[in-house]
Amino acid sequence: MLERGDFACGTSSRSTKLVHGGVRYLEQGRIGLVRESLRERATLLANAPGLVHPIRFVVPAHSRWERAKLRLGLRLYDRLAPMHSRDALGRQVTLPPSRTLTAADAVAVWPGLAAAELSGAVTFSDAQFDDARLAVALARRIRSLGGVTLNYAEVVAVDGDKTGRIVGVQVVDRDPARAARRVRFHAVRASVVVDATGAFTEFARRRVALSRGSHVVLGPEFVRSDHALLIPRTEDGRVLFAIPWYGRLLVGTTDLTSDVAEREPRMSEAELSYLLAHIAPYLHREPKRTDVESAWTGLRALLAGDGGPTSRLSREHGVLETRAGLLSVVGGKWTTYRATAEDVVSRAAEAGGLPPAPSRTASIQLDGDDVSADSTSRDWIRRMVREDSARCVADVLARRSRLLFLDARAAESRSREVAEVLAGELGLTSAWVDEQVREFGRLAAGYLPPGITGTDDAS
Ligand SMILES: Cc1cc2nc3c(=O)[nH]c(=O)nc-3n(C[C@H](O)[C@H](O)[C@H](O)COP(=O)(O)OP(=O)(O)OC[C@H]3O[C@@H](n4cnc5c(N)ncnc54)[C@H](O)[C@@H]3O)c2cc1C
């Protein structure tokens, strides 16, 4: 597995962090996708209890009709989910079913709701996870099973034989912890190559529709409930979530057609205003842009459709043989990553002439790291370098700790300390430390909302 940046540096660290069937896909009649997602939710809850956990949602209803409709839909959601799953120790993992609430009970659950405007609410169960940490845990597990995972290994070309069939790739080492030197190409031979580059695919470009999705993170003052809030339809017909995450409130997302696959897309002014304005009626006070502690954007790579809005495009995955010996994976969701991988690996085995073998991944355990989200102790950073391939400040502060995604200013203020520990561990100079601090400062500035600048603590 070759990754040009760090594990999960693309879309996979910028999701809404839900392992979910997707209530809105039910409304769109995508029963197959919902059923598969709920099955994978049960598998993940059982296999990765340190990284995935149940969360309860509340959905406000503004009329009796809306409440009845929600109740019916969420009963169906309950019924599509496997009743129980078992974790590695054989313990049963059961999610409580959906429930109707009166207006007064709804306000008790989510104090920002105004009882006067409510007919009641419905609560239901889903699951939440830490996306980047799950990716890092997956890489660790792959290595423990004898696989090879390399971050900072960019595929720059594919090699073909005389017939045009792909027989391998050319890789360039982009390790940020090495001094600048001549670029060297390494050839990797393979019977089949899988292009799983998401929004950045070059081979399946015409089959991909890009959609931007942005989130803002509000400080602890805005967390007044252990429930998450789902607003099923904003005035312009979109879904909005407000989810407690590591003691802060994650609000998102937008869904806007995009043309460019940027590596670090930035939230626009319009997206920021949209998110703050639409969540304001559900909070104890109106959030201002200075209340935003982090703001980030991801790019969905969806299976292209007939040109309608991206919010209506399917979240199912597709596996396309874009050239002989090359499979491109397009679309999909984090929730169904394992099922997608199972499908891709079976297709790759077939394309590479290997005998079919049943997948074992549904029962492979993934160990979670039970440190808090902003943990950056020196010993912990050293462990991230030795065991989890951290090579630069962003690897530590964005993906192994989630501090950049939670509080960009706090992350920036820790960058020198993190760079110094990394330099000690990797044998690097003070000039490297200074360059890392500058580079991380530029990155962190992009995680502040438009119009807001960070501190100069780190410079
Ligand atoms: C705003 C938003 C919210 C979402 N919320 C959810 C959610 O709550 N639940 C859910 O289930 N799903 C969610 N999704 C969907 C989910 O995040 C994506 O389906 C998933 O992360 C896509 O993973 P990926 O590996 O295909 O793409 P990516 O994570 O982008 O990975 C592709 C990788 O390929 C690497 N790469 C590119 N070119 C090369 C090269 N030449 N050589 C080597 N490496 C290369 C990139 O660096 C990148 O890391 C959300 C998506 C968005 C945008």
What does this structure look like?
The chain is α+β, with helices and mostly antiparallel strands and 459 residues long. It has a domain at 378-445. 31% of the residues lie in helices and 23% in strands. The chain contains twelve helices and 18 strands. It has helices at residues 23-27, 31-47, 64-80, 103-109, 131-144, 269-279, 337-351, 378-388, 393-400, 403-406, 408-426, 430-445, and strands at residues 18-19, 52-61, 85-86, 92-93, 99-101, 120-129, 153-160, 166-173, 185-189, 193-195, 208-218, 228-231, 240-245, 248-252, 256-258, 292-303, 317-323, 326-331. Strands 1, 2, 5, 6, 11, 12, 13, 14, 15 and 16 form a ten-stranded mixed β-sheet that branches. A three-stranded antiparallel β-sheet has the order 7-8-9, with no helix packed on it. A three-stranded mixed β-sheet has the order 10-18-17, covered by helices on one side. The longest helix has 19 residues, at 408-426. The radius of gyration is 22 Å and the shape is globular. The two termini are 35 Å apart. The structure holds flavin-adenine dinucleotide.
The sequence of SSEs as H and E is: EHHEHEEEHEHEEEEEEEEEHEEEHHHHHH
Task: Give the CA-based shape.
Answer: globular
Can you count the helices? 12
Radius of gyration: 22 Å
Residue fraction in strands: 15-25%
Low-confidence stretches: none
Q: Name the helicity range.
A: 25-40%
Strand-pairing-aware structural class: alpha+beta
User: Can you count the beta strands?
Assistant: 18
* Nearest-integer average pLDDT: 91
Distinct small molecules: flavin-adenine dinucleotide
